[in-house]
Design a protein that fits this description.
By secondary structure, the chain is mainly α. The protein has a domain of 366 residues. A two-stranded antiparallel sheet has the order 1-2. Helix 5 crosses helix 6. It is globular. It starts with a helix and ends with a helix. It is a multi-pass membrane protein. It is found in: Membrane. Keywords: Coiled coil, Membrane, Transmembrane, Transmembrane helix.
Length: 669
């Protein structure tokens, strides 16, 4: 089993990252380099989280071997003897041979840092650039990132001057490397605590509110009102941009040097706009440089950028509106079925997507009713209590992990108890659950936050390239300080435990933070305590209230504006529901009409065609007889009657349109 666990986790994490990226990205429409770069960033960050527990168990086993192989007389103080006498150390099932983990962490860490600080910012600017050539996009990306990279050099230079001026340090390459790692981890830890404080409260609260049917339905109505406003704004913005594209397309003719740029812009427009502009295009009219003023290539690049953004936003709002409608209809069905006496879940509308037959076999209407109306609320409540307990443990440990005598961090207590018995499975499970919960709190916040329309991770393949690359940057910057914070909570970091024990392979590549004592002994220890204040602010929704005051409407139960938006969203959902009901009723009537009269019409049509053929041949041979005109007249009348019967469709009569006055009826005839 040596190294098998590492290989299995590497494969599993790859497919996990691929699944999440497929949910948010669009493999068919987005550039392959964007997909590959984002997948690599997500994969490396998830890999660090899953592999770190194996590093901890391997490190504990190596400490045991050192304690057993070194007697007290032979001990030079480099390592602490964990047992007073010889004892047997059991090799963990997931043991990783010596020399593999340091190389693995070094490759993973520096690759992720190269992505987050150099490659991904450059690709962000490249993806958002409206240039028409690779050279133009690269030039735009370099100009936009000049200030970005200059800020990094300024910060790194400040750390470099501090170390150079301090007479206690001899500036070496290893120390210079440690300064760079410390600068990156400091920035990441600053953002990590902010996101962690929000996630520790919001995740348990969201699951607790998930058990409240009325709460979820009201919040869905609120989202519908806001999304309709955004949807209307996106449609209006798209119309304005398409009008500009139309004017440019009409002014720049087929033989103009910039016509290739216009054609590139037209390819990014929706199909209906392309057809409309194509009909109004006169390709035979030459351009005259002295007569008209034409836009420059720079202005066309700006228009190209606006077209890409507006089309992506319009498509996203359309898809999100349909998804929100399905969610609202389903929650309304749950509210109706709660009082059902038959205990079978009845849907108002049938699913538009074909369902899996296996799921239909096991997930019957009875099972669905018991799950949605009885079991699911209690499951969410129990899960919310478990998550809230984890959050309390994390907050307590963040505030006390610097205390080594006595050990107050609960995570450190759990790991040390398991270390005495060398229960490696328990150690790995405890480490995995701890770092997994911390990762969920941080990463879920990254998926939830939205910076206007510039950064927004939308599911169902609606996330743009800029947001995907930005999420990869955040993951690569947050994961290393997250892992260091986890090692500090469990006292596996020698900087926190103040013991001369063998460090983990992950800690060894970070170097000794003693080079910057004010960071190692100050910022890294006391800044995480700020999570208590952030949790309190999140619990009382202070951020939501501030956004409301600034004009950004958020869902709050005690707000008058929230109530108005809920009523507006409820009316919008009601309209869409009536519209879909009318569509389904019309389709059902057409289907019934076709089933009832379809075969009869076909047989009648065949009989009439056969009669017409006989009559036409008879009329050709007996054209002088007067009977032929009556035969043709009767056949034409019969054909007209049958054609009218075939073209007739069931009508959706409205009570207001029915007129009972026979006089008006006669006059109409």
């Amino acid at each position: 089993m040596s190294g098998a666990a590492l290989g299995l986790e590497i494969v599993f994490v790859f497919f996990l990252a691929l699944f999440l990226l497929h949910r948010y990205g669009d493999f068919k429409k987005q550039h392959r380099l964007v997909i590959i770069a984002t997948l690599l960033a997500w994969y490396l960050c998830f890999l660090i989280v899953f592999i770190l527990p194996l590093d901890v168990s391997t490190t504990i086993y190596n400490r045991c071997k050192l304690a057993v192989n070194s007697s007290p007389a032979e001990s030079n103080g480099s390592y602490v003897t964990l047992a007073p006498s010889k004892q047997k150390c059991f090799k963990p099932w997931s043991y990783i041979p010596d020399g593999i983990m340091p190389i693995f962490w070094r490759v993973v860490y520096w690759t992720s840092q190269f992505l987050t600080w150099i490659l991904l910012p450059f690709m962000q600017s490249y993806a958002r650039s409206g240039g028409f050539s690779i050279t133009g996009k690269i030039k735009t990306a370099l100009i936009e990132n000049a200030i970005y990279y200059g800020t990094y050099l300024l910060i790194f230079g400040a750390f470099l001057i501090y170390v150079a001026v301090n007479p206690n340090f001899n500036l070496q390459w290893n120390q210079l490397q440690t300064i760079g790692i410390a600068a990156a981890n400091t920035w990441g830890l600053f953002l990590l605590v902010l996101l962690l404080g929000y996630g520790l409260v919001e995740i348990p609260r969201s699951h607790w509110n998930g058990a409240k049917r009325g709460y979820l339905l009201m919040k869905t109505y609120f989202k519908a009102a806001k999304l309709m406003t955004e949807k209307a704004d996106a449609e209006e913005n798209l119309e304005d941009i398409m009008e500009e594209v139309r004017k440019v397309s009409e002014s720049i003719k087929y033989n103009h040097p910039l016509r290739k740029c216009v054609d590139t812009i037209l390819k990014k427009c929706p199909t209906e706009y392309q057809e409309r502009m194509g009909r109004n295009m006169d390709d035979y009219e030459d351009f005259d440089e002295r007569q008209n003023s034409y836009p420059s290539e720079k202005s066309l690049a700006k228009l190209h950028k606006q077209v890409i953004y507006s089309v992506q936003r319009h498509r996203r709002t359309q898809v999100q509106w349909q998804i929100l409608l399905e969610q609202a209809f389903y929650l309304e069905d749950v509210a109706k079925n709660e009082s059902s006496a038959t205990r079978q879940f009845v849907h108002t509308f049938h699913s538009q997507e074909p369902e899996n037959k296996i799921i239909q076999y096991f997930y019957t209407p009875t099972v669905e009713w018991y799950w949605e109306c009885l079991l699911r609320p209690w499951f969410y409540r129990v899960l919310a209590v478990v998550l809230a307990t984890f959050s309390v443990i994390v907050v307590w440990s963040e505030c006390t992990f610097f205390s080594t005598k006595p050990v107050l961090s609960l995570f450190a207590v759990f790991i040390q108890l398991a270390e005495k018995t060398y229960n490696y499975i328990y150690i790995e499970m405890a480490c995995f659950l701890t770092i997994f919960f911390l990762s969920i709190c941080v990463y879920s916040t990254v998926f939830r936050i939205r910076v206007f329309n510039y950064y927004y991770l939308a599911s169902h393949h609606q996330t743009d390239a800029y947001s995907l690359l930005f999420s990869g940057m955040l993951f690569c910057r947050l994961t290393p300080p997250l892992c260091l914070n986890f090692l500090g909570l469990t006292h596996m970091d020698a900087t926190i435990s103040h013991k001369n024990t063998q460090p983990t392979a992950y800690t060894s590549i970070m170097g000794s933070m003693r080079v910057l004592s004010f960071i190692a002994d100050g910022f890294y220890i006391y800044y995480p305590m700020l999570v208590v204040i952030l949790c309190i602010a999140t619990y009382f929704s202070l951020g939501t209230r501030c956004l409301n005051l600034l004009g950004f409407q958020q869902f709050m139960g005690d707000s008058e504006m929230t109530s108005d938006l809920i009523d507006e969203g409820k009316e919008l959902i009601r309209r869409e529901k009536r519209k879909r009901q009318r569509q389904e009723e019309g389709e059902n009537r057409r289907r019934e009409w076709k089933e009832r009269y379809g075969n009869r019409d076909d047989s009648t049509r065949n009989r009439v065609v056969h009669t017409d053929q006989k009559e036409s041949s008879f009329s050709e041979t007996n054209a002088s007889r007067p009977l032929s005109k009556y035969t043709r007249s009767n056949g034409r009348t019969e054909r007209d009657r049958i054609e009218l019967l075939q073209d007739a469709e069931p009508l959706d009569f409205n009570a207001d349109s029915i007129n009972d006055d026979p006089l008006e009826s006669d006059s109409g005839r």
